[in-house]
Design goal:
The protein has 462 residues and is an alpha/beta fold. The protein has 12 helices and 21 strands. α2 crosses α6 and α9 packs across α10. The structure holds zinc ion (ZN). The site of zinc ion (ZN) has 8 residues, from loops.
Length: 462
């Protein structure tokens, strides 16, 4: 049998498996749920709001009734479940902080809910955060994921490639994972082992898989594109879905050029994974929020919250009954807008993600400036492969740069100095450091800003 015939049978069997699963366990019906979401994305906005308000009321009552610690938090805030009628009432509820979740996570689990999985995140600055999920909540999350990918043509069962952390490894567990991945059409390639010496093997593996879609760390997808180009290789894809890191526009351009693919970043965090997916039709980079499943708010410096505008994100997962996360401050910030996209979807929009709010820079006077200044400044440069901004005291930055072809140090340094002077103040100190590679975090993510003055954890030398 030819490979494409085998793959066709595999895909069909995998889809049938999920259809059958939905019949025996409706709460796990991933296919039905995804089909449903394909319709609800076009609902009149009032109907969508109705759905999320109903879910919100049920979630708040559930948290009140099954989690004594959550009830105490609400009482301390002078709010009872009946005070929350619609999403507009959300700001009456307390904000759930990372510290609260990390230190008291076990007390934030609901009683009487069958948990199916636990997700462990973070750990670079202390104990890791653990989030439990139940079957129905996980299905909503995954269905939102597959709907988002479908906007770029990737459907459940299709062959696809993942470029994330971890290694290929050996042993029985790995072999089992390989079989499971094969059935799902998924080819996993380790992001951090990719380099100039083995890029050819990565390209071969992707071509052998028949995949037309790549999902992975933003920095890894970009690295693959630039290595493919430099080695004079060819790898054509339909769409790339980069995630977990801010996407500088020049990286998107390289991926588009090399892969001939659409670049559709998506957004989530370890605790609430399906937050936003790129609209393929919007003129400006736009993520549509998974409004049937989550509510995003932005928090201003004064502590007020709203559903549009700029600020730190507060995330409510409407479907996690095992461990309700309500108004969770996930550490990211950005710009939210309501519905109004040219594609006709009535879902809300994220127009910008600034990355971790902790990754800020301080001006000479001590004011905070978003770390998004990094991608903003470096988009004006030429011949920069990678960069990282390290701040050791207010008004000072060290720009670590990995140079590529056509880099003109004196011109670029003058330009970058000018941009940072503008943002950090006229007495700003800007130093340059030329390096072979920039360090990543312990979790393997690229970091554009490391604020050592504010206590940013030094990254592992990976
Ligand atoms: Zn749209």
């Amino acid at each position: 049998m030819t490979r494409s015939l085998v793959d066709g049978i595999r895909e069909r069997a995998y889809v049938l498996f999920w259809e059958a699963r939905g019949l025996t366990t409706p709460s796990a019906g991933l296919r039905a749920r995804t089909r449903w979401l394909q319709k609800s994305q076009h609902w009149p906005r009032a109907r969508l709001d109705d759905l999320r308000d109903r879910k919100l009321r049920a979630l708040v009552s559930h948290a009140w009734n099954t989690i004594p610690r959550y009830r105490r938090l609400m009482e301390a805030h002078g709010v009872r479940p009946e005070d929350i009628r619609t999403h507009v009432d959300l700001p009456r509820l307390p904000v759930l902080t990372k510290d609260e979740l990390r230190e008291h996570g076990s007390e934030l689990r609901a009683t009487g809910v069958t948990e199916i999985e636990e997700n462990v995140t973070g750990g670079t600055t202390g104990a890791p955060t653990r989030v439990a999920r139940d079957v129905a909540g996980a299905t909503w999350q995954r269905a939102s994921y597959w709907r988002g990918f479908s906007w770029g043509g990737l459907e459940l069962g299709h062959a696809w490639v993942q470029l994330f952390g971890g290694s290929l490894g050996v042993g029985a567990a790995r072999r089992f994972n390989r079989v499971k991945n094969w059935v799902a059409g998924k080819t996993f390639l380790p992001a951090f082992e990719l380099g100039p010496d083995n890029v050819g093997r990565y390209v071969e593996a992707i071509e052998r898989s028949g995949a037309r879609h790549l999902v992975g760390y933003t920095s890894a997808c970009y690295l693959l594109a630039s290595l493919v180009e430099r080695a004079g290789l060819r790898l054509k894809l339909d769409a790339v879905f980069p995630t977990a890191e801010v996407l500088p526009p020049q990286w998107a351009e390289v991926m588009t050029r090399v892969f001939g693919a659409r670049v559709l970043p998506y957004y989530g965090c370890g605790e609430v994974q399906s937050l936003g997916y790129s609209c393929p039709e919007a003129d400006e980079p736009t993520y549509h929020t998974s409004d049937e499943h989550v509510i995003l708010e932005v928090e201003s410096r004064e502590g007020a919250a709203s559903f549009e505008g700029e600020g730190a994100f507060l995330v409510t997962d409407l479907d996690n009954r095992a461990m309700p996360l309500i108004r969770y401050r996930n550490g990211d910030a950005g710009l939210l807008a309501g519905q109004g996209c040219s594609c006709g979807r009535t879902l809300g929009r994220i127009l910008r993600i600034d990355g971790r709010v902790n990754d800020v820079l301080l001006t000479v006077r001590g004011d905070a400036v978003s770390g998004a200044i990094g991608p903003h400044a470096f988009r004006l440069t030429r011949g920069v492969e990678a960069f990282q901004i390290v701040q050791r005291r207010p008004g000072q930055v060290t720009l670590r740069i990995v140079t590529g072809q056509g880099f003109d140090a004196s011109a670029e340094e003058a330009m970058l100095r000018k941009v940072f002077d503008e943002h950090l103040g006229p007495e700003a100190m800007v130093d340059f450091e030329y390096v072979d590679r920039v360090q990543k975090t312990a979790a393997g993510k690229a970091r554009f800003v490391i604020n050592e003055f504010l206590g940013g954890a030094p990254p592992s030398p990976r």
